[in-house]
Amino acid sequence: MMQSSDDDTDQTYGYFDDQNYEYVITTPYTPTPWINYLGSNEFYGIISNTAGGYCFDRDPKFRRLTRYRYNSVPLDSGGRYFYIRDENDFWSATGRPATTQLDQYSCRHGMGYSRFNASKNGIATQVTSFIPLDTKAEIHSLVVTNHTQSTKSIDVFSFIEWCLWNAEDDGANFQRNLSTAEVEIEGSTLYHKTEYRERRNHYGFYSVNRQLDGYDTNRESFLGPYRGFDRPEVVEKGQANNSFARGWSPIASHHLKLELAPGESQSLEFVLGYIEVSVDHKWHSKNVINKQPAKDMLTRFDSHEKVMDELGKLNRYWRTLLCKFSVETPDDKFNRAINIWNQYQNMVTFNLSRSASFYESGIGRGIGFRDSNQDTIGFVHMVPEKVRARILDLSSTQKFDGSAYHQYQPLTKKGNANIGGNFNDDPMWLVLSTTNYIKETGDFSILQEMVIYDGQEQATHDHFDHLLRAFMHVINNLGPHGLPLIGRADWNDCLNLNCFSDDPNESFQTTQVGASDVAESVMIAGQFVLYGQEFVDLCQQVGKIELANRSMKHIEKMRKTIEQHAWDGEWYLRAYDSRGKKIGSHKNSEGKIFIESQGFCAMAGIGLNDGKVEQALRSVDKHLATDFGIMLNQPAYSQYDKYLGEISSYPPGYKENAGIFCHNNPWIIIAETMLGHGEKAFEYYRKITPTYLQNRQTLLKTEPYVYCQMIAGKDAANPGEGKNSWLTGTAAWSYYAATQYILGIRPVYQGLSIAPCVLPSWKLIRVQREFRGAQYSIEIHNPHGLSSGKITLSIDGQPVEGNVISSSSFNGQHTVIATMV
Ligand code: BGC
Ligand code: NOJ
């Protein structure tokens, strides 16, 4: 295995291994737990570099199998643990929770799997954890090898803690939960059936493919009184108690004794599975669960060969997915980001929205309307069918007036009433996701799909009608200046201009709905012009010319309104508050300039011809750019102001209050490419992209292989420190900016357009792109060292007019040469 050459970087905690598509973590004690995601469909696991985390089926609140303690002491408590006991010493095969110093440790996070290597006193272990394709189970394959000269007797103890009930209740309702646990034990399988006697038709199990030398299912019995996961009593004494849980805290722990000759390896295949049964087939006999589906599943994983075969399938699945778009530029870090890690993160954010990470507890938030629509733009080229289904699911939570539930729950796919709607940027994101989907696939039939409104069968119209209502919702909700009403908040959830909260017990997100509905958003205005134009283009594509013309008038009007009421002299205003006061103006003492309206007005091309975009971007550079990325606003708010809301609740430099909110940096990157500023666009890109941040991993703290939501801004205690890794719109937007605007390989209705805006030093770029059933090998030549400009194009040696690869070649393999001239 070769390690990629990364000599310019700090490798205190880890490094990339590109050959294997892995990030290699070299210590259990990373600054924060560095996690990976397992699973690609419905059943998911979150796994840290010491195997902390949990798994769940679809909904991490209602179908979480195992327990995880967020924000725990010590950090990262609860996971799939393996204690290895050799004579009187014991350690953890995944580096923690036992504190024994290992002779060797590494965790390799790969595409949908994690592998842990450890060794101590000549005994080496390897745990490979993954969720096989189309399977509702985590597999943990453990190989133990004796590298010593003598025969060794080794004890292995597995450990997981169950939580297959309402995960929110789990942290609150102890008077009930400590009395409900029930288990069954049969052979080497420990079944968890809490609440199964009543309304659950699902259970969990943890099994191993070898006869047990003991087991435990009761946590206190395994750990011993007042002990932590670091030194369970059972492990210390070297013998399981065969405890049987009734109430209290149910766990599953297998005890296996291995005899290993010198040089010998033995493998154990652990399966942590989830089973759903029909009501009619719940029981085998009175109070005995129907175990047949679990047994059937177990036959798929009862040998090391079978398990490795499944891992091979998963690896091939990922290689195929990542081949759909790959690039070779002179910059390895760019290639690594585009070819591997950014796409990987795109899949994860698409699957999970903002529900379950180490910072999103999996109980509060479901699938976000705005978030999930945006996530599709980084994922649609990978699995377009899933994007199609997701768009239609989102569409079905739209309300009849075009607004939307802000979130829906993954199990029911019904809008979440607690959060409700009124986030007025929500509707237009549906236009982005849908038009981007059609441009990728050419599949206009999505527009004819019949979709309910607000989850109600009687209100069914085609999906196109949903887009029209989204568009009209903006028009029907304009404020005093003719700009869109912001509602509870626009993209910036913390700019709460219509509630005025003095009560610390209120949530800014949900409180005082309708206390005022006057404040207006320039960000939504820009968004409306941008995606409104997309809507008009779409109308033209489907022959709705009259509607296109009518809609265009609204857009023109909005454009004028912005020019008239939203230009502050050197940049775009951010909003008007409930009292008609400007937000994001040089006249304000704090919060003079905001990034969102610059990004959206610029991307919409408002003021492109009269220098306003140029000027706005210069202002961004001057006031908001830092070495670590572009801040959201400046100067930071130093005091709480109820007319601003949550934004002013954060100390300066954090989150929406002048943090570097990475999600909106790509908006500026795209805007820079629209002006042909390849170097500037690239400079902003590399500041936030993890593959460039290896030498900053200590400061960053979060995983240096994925984007995090926020990097602390210049006013913070530690500028450059990251927070909230993994589930962020930054992933999709960075990928979209890098592929469609920097590389400029952009799907359009007619085909694939090529309009790069790159570093002048990039003389040759090679791209492999699967598109509408064809495979394109694209070479972009830049002989004159340009950033952007005109392109001459040839396909399979034939010159082509313009810069679009069109439908005449939508199958087979093609060679495309684009030359920047
Ligand atoms: C965070 C936002 C987030 C919102 C919604 C706020 O506390 O600062 O980033 O979008 O909560 O949950
Ligand atoms: C995170 C939320 O998930 C997203 O919806 C929002 O746009 C940003 N925070 C900014 O507030």
What's a concise summary of this model?
By secondary structure, the protein is of the alpha+beta class. It has 19 helices and 43 strands. It starts with 13 loop residues before the first strand and ends with a strand.
Report the radius of gyration as a whole number of Å: 28 Å
The tally of strands reads 43
Name the average pLDDT.
Answer: 96
- Read across the widest sheet, the strand sequence of neighbours is 1-2-8-9-10-11-18-15-14-13
Binned strand content: 25-35%
Ligands present: beta-D-glucopyranose, 1-deoxynojirimycin
Describe the biggest sheet? 10 strands, antiparallel
Q: What structural class is derived from the secondary structure elements?
A: alpha+beta
Low-confidence stretches: 1-7
Shape: globular
Total of helices = 19
Q: How many angstroms does the end-to-end distance come to?
A: 42 Å
Helix content: 25-40%
3D architecture notes:
The protein is of the alpha+beta class and about 800 residues long. It is built from 19 helices and 43 strands. The strands form 12 sheets. It has a 10-stranded antiparallel sheet, with helices on one face. Strands 21-38-39-43-40-41 form a 6-stranded mixed sheet. A hairpin with a 2-residue loop joins strand 19 (about 285) and strand 20. The longest helix is centred in the middle third of the chain and has 21 residues, at about 330-350. The structure holds beta-D-glucopyranose and 1-deoxynojirimycin. Beta-D-glucopyranose binds near residues 646 and 656. 1-deoxynojirimycin binds next to helix 8.
